[in-house]
């Protein structure tokens, strides 16, 4: 039994300590916004925050998350109104949408570090997240837009 | 029951123009008639596509699976526009599998591919909504005791013109429900469109930005187990000889180990356990004939076969005579590899079999095929199979196949429990349905002015429809193999296209833009070779040959203009151009590219001109062009599936890489408003991209890319 703090809530997970955090989140806690895409930290679909840092939950054992704060897409904002989420909707970023939880978690972590990311900052923070629908141009624009929204007081 | 026949109308030119004479039939089910379309008190439901309740909430049923192309929004725009619905009082449902009510009226099936969402359905949906609007107008006219000609609609309300009186749609539900459904309702003229042609936000964006959207992988069913199938080491044709599940069954959480068509399924309490169970299995395989097949041998056999004649797919004039005519001749060979779709969501489906029937939850492009397949396996009639189409984490043609449905239903049946059957990424890449690898030889002759007088193109490779046993009855030339080659738009007097069917048994599938995806690369590269050989500008050369193809010419010119074709570029950059028709639309691309000293290719700017007839949601037209560019660039730069002793050698994104954001060019899309009948959009943005890129590489380096993916080692500076 391992205790996780997910989206501010203490949760007990009855699983082996080497179970990837992704599957505890998806199957035990039934938070399915975080996706499986590759299982090898190659695509970023499983990105969540661990104490605020974006990590690939598909290769992170739950034992490594014990006692730390895990934030998933469901916990990014109570109403889905995080500036990144607002910008994503405003610019119609998602197509199939499967990768977008991971994209948004990577983008939110970037903006928490850098209020005004450059295109180069975006490239380096977001290059781990694959989008097969090819929404990269809108992702870039939406990150700039989210930065502006955040500066305008949106939270 | 009546089966009204409607003639297709060109939307922007009224009834007189394009497609006139093409007639299609479809069936609007009046409420209660025939099928399961039940009549509910307080709900106005004139047909299967829409209903309105007393609160005025409009419920629209979208039959086209939402795979990213925006069907949920586009379908709604079309129906809401003709209905004059209030955009803020609409709910959208995904249609169940029920081909009688929801089949595509052109294909007759409930399977969706070929960029057919808008172009095949728009007339039917508009008629459906127009019928409803006429009934609402009549209901209001009856209520007021006025002539129906004196009332109009505004979003969600009927208005009496002279007095300004209004009745909301919700107030008219009961009266409208009692009226007969008009069979030939009058459609809006395009100047009255409220939503079509405007940039409306995607209805699915909020759920996709919050993680709330439910994909196949996210389905939860009470009592559900999770399964994963140990598949053969070869890509097809293998059979399980025997297996030892002792070690797998010893793993806590493994519930069942069962043999199914596609391997041995481990059914467990969670996915990780199912995968661990797979690793503990000992399976003995009869590998079958594929173990003899390797990519090197495929290439060499293709090359050898290319010296033999193929079946003639098109023959204009006499190419051999023209080739022997004494003018300058050119020859070239082009080769493209197998490709896998790599949807972001690996294949999966969930099935529950009960004594009453079967329920399937699936991210499928093919609800009709899912229903039929599940019925066959569960041993129940199709009507007893409920198919819930979830959101699709990518489709691209891969999810029209039913292999993952077979997996789920067979496993659920064998396990006697609801099962979510999930593929790993490795399963997905190694057991796909691949875009065909082909080998192509060209011979061309130029006249004294450098213009082509002969074009001979021979394609060696397999046919998707031929392999699947789905060839049209009237030909032995697979239309999918020659699409984009047979319909070469250039005005060349002697033109011959041949196809030599050679199939090594690698499973084939429809990969975003299908035959056009490789044939546009091949033909648009070779025409570029001819232009350069003639010492002519590649844009002007094409333009001069497109006299008989005005829509090709128009998008080509638009792309060239918007890309400032011919204007100077910074050192180290060059432009390439290409144009192609596919799936009802015309697209032209100009790409600005550079090649680094190590040979690494980069696309910096992609200018796309698209003529899709009518742009229902222009911003989403652009989204499809942006996505098509990335899909095509990924294939041109990296895409290659190889087979060694029958096994696919790639397995995940480290060896089957995808383009990432740091490689993303700026994509600028310009929509050419031709006023023609609607064309497709998911696919047409792909074909011109690879040739435009490779033509830019040639302009820059003088090196012609004739094999995909691009090989940087051949482009690096000596």
Walk me through what this model shows.
- The complex is a heterodimer of chains A (155) and B (718).
- With 155 residues, chain A is an alpha+beta fold.
- Chain A is 37% helix and 14% strand.
- Chain A has 6 helices and 5 strands.
- Chain A has helices at 21-28, 62-65, 83-90, 100-113, 119-126, 136-151; strands at 2-6, 9-13, 47-50, 53-56, 69-71.
- Chain A has a 5-stranded mixed sheet, sandwiched between helices.
- In chain A, a hairpin with a 2-residue loop joins β3 (47-50) and β4 (53-56).
- The longest helix of chain A has 16 residues, at 136-151.
- Chain A is globular, with a radius of gyration of 15 Å.
- Chain A starts with a strand and ends with a helix.
- The longest helix of chain B has 28 residues, at 117-144.
- The termini of chain B are far apart.
- Chain B has 718 residues and is of the alpha+beta class.
- In chain B, α1 (71-83) runs parallel beside α3 (117-144), α10 packs parallel to α11 (403-415) and α15 (514-533) packs parallel to α19.
- In chain B, 57% of the residues are buried.
- Chain B is 28% helix and 24% strand.
- Residues 1-25 and 30-37 of chain B have low confidence and may be disordered.
- The radius of gyration of chain B is 27 Å and the shape is globular.
- At the A-B interface, α1, α3, α4, α5 and α6 of A face α5 and α18 of B.
């Amino acid at each position: 039994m391992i205790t996780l703090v997910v989206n501010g809530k203490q949760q007990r997970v009855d699983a082996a300590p080497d179970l990837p955090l992704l599957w505890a989140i998806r199957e035990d806690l039934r938070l399915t916004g975080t996706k499986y895409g590759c299982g090898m930290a190659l695509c970023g679909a499983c990105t969540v925050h661990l104490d605020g840092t974006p990590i690939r939950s598909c290769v992170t054992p739950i034992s490594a998350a014990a006692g730390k704060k895990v934030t998933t897409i469901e916990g990014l904002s109570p109403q889905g109104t995080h500036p990144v989420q607002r910008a994503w909707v405003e610019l119609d970023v998602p197509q199939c949408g499967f990768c977008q939880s991971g994209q948004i978690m990577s983008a939110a972590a970037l903006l928490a570090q850098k209020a005004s990311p450059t295109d180069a900052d975006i490239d380096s923070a977001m290059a781990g997240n694959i989008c097969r629908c090819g929404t990269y141009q809108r992702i870039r624009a939406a990150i700039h837009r989210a930065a502006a929204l955040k500066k305008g007081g949106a939270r | 029951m009546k089966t009204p026949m409607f003639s297709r109308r060109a939307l922007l030119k009224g009834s007189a123009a394009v497609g006139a004479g093409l007639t299609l039939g479809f069936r609007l089910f009046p409420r209660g008639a025939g099928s399961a379309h039940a009549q509910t008190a307080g709900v106005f439901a004139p047909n299967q596509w829409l209903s309105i309740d007393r609160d005025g909430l409009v419920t629209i049923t979208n039959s086209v699976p939402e795979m990213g192309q925006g069907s949920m929004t586009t379908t709604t725009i079309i129906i809401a526009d003709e209905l004059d619905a209030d955009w803020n009082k609409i709910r959208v449902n995904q249609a169940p599998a029920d081909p009688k009510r929801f089949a595509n009226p052109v294909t007759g099936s409930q399977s969706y591919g070929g960029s057919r969402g808008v172009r095949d359905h728009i007339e039917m949906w508009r008629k459906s909504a127009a019928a409803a609007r006429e009934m609402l107008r009549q209901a209001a006219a009856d209520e007021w005791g006025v002539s129906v000609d004196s009332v109009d609609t505004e979003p969600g309300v009927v208005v009496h013109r002279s007095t300004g009186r209004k009745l909301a749609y919700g107030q008219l539900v009961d009266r409208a429900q009692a009226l007969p459904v008009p069979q030939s309702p009058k459609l809006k003229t395009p100047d009255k469109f409220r939503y079509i042609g405007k940039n409306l936000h995607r209805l699915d964006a909020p759920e996709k930005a919050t993680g709330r959207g439910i994909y196949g992988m996210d389905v939860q069913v009470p009592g559900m187990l999770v399964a994963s199938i140990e598949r053969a080491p070869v890509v097809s044709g293998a059979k399980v000889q025997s297996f030892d599940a002792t070690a797998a069954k010893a793993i806590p959480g493994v519930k069942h180990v069962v043999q199914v068509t596609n391997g041995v399924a481990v059914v467990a309490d969670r996915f990780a356990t199912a995968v661990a169970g797979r690793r503990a299995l000992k399976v003995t395989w009869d590998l079958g004939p594929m173990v003899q097949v390797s990519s090197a041998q495929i290439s060499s056999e293709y090359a050898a076969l290319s010296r033999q004649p193929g079946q003639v797919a098109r023959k204009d004039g006499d190419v051999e005579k023209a080739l022997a005519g004494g003018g300058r001749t050119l020859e070239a060979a082009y080769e493209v590899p197998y490709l896998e779709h790599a949807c972001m969501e690996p294949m999966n489906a969930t099935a529950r079999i009960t004594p009453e029937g079967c329920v399937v939850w699936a991210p499928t492009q093919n609800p009709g095929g899912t229903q039929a397949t599940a019925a066959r396996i569960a041993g129940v009639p199709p009507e007893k199979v409920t198919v819930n189409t979830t959101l699709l984490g990518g489709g691209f043609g891969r999810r029209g196949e039913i292999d993952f449905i077979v997996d789920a239903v067979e496993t659920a049946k064998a396990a006697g429990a609801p099962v979510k059957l999930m593929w790993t990424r490795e399963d997905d890449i190694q057991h796909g349905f691949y875009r065909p690898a082909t080998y192509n030889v060209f011979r061309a002759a130029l006249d004294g002015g450098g213009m082509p007088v002969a074009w001979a193109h021979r394609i060696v490779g397999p046919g998707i429809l031929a392999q699947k046993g789905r060839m049209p009855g009237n030909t032995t030339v697979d239309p999918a193999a020659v699409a984009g080659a047979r319909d070469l738009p250039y005005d060349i007097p002697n033109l011959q296209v041949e196809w030599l069917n050679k199939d090594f048994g690698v499973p084939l599938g429809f990969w975003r833009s299908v035959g056009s995806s490789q044939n546009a690369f091949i033909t648009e590269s070779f025409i570029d070779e001819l232009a350069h050989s003639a010492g002519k500008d590649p844009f002007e050369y094409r333009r001069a040959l497109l006299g008989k193809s005005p829509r090709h010419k128009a998008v080509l010119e638009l792309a060239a203009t918007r890309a400032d074709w011919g204007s100077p570029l910074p050192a180290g950059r060059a432009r390439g151009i290409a144009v192609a028709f596919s799936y009802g639309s015309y697209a032209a691309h100009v790409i600005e590219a550079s090649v680094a000293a190590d040979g690494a290719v980069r696309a910096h700017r992609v200018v796309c001109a698209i003529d899709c007839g009518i742009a229902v949601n222009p911003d989403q037209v652009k989204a499809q062009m942006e996505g098509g560019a990335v899909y095509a660039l990924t294939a041109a730069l990296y895409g290659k599936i190889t087979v060694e002793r029958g096994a696919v050698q790639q397995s995940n994104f480290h060896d089957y890489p995808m383009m990432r954001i740091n490689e993303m060019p700026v994509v600028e899309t310009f929509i050419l408003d031709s006023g023609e009948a609607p064309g497709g959009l998911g696919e047409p943005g792909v074909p011109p991209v690879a040739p435009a890129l490779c033509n830019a590489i040639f302009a820059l380096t003088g090196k012609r890319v004739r094999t995909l993916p691009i090989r940087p080692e051949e482009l690096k500076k000596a």
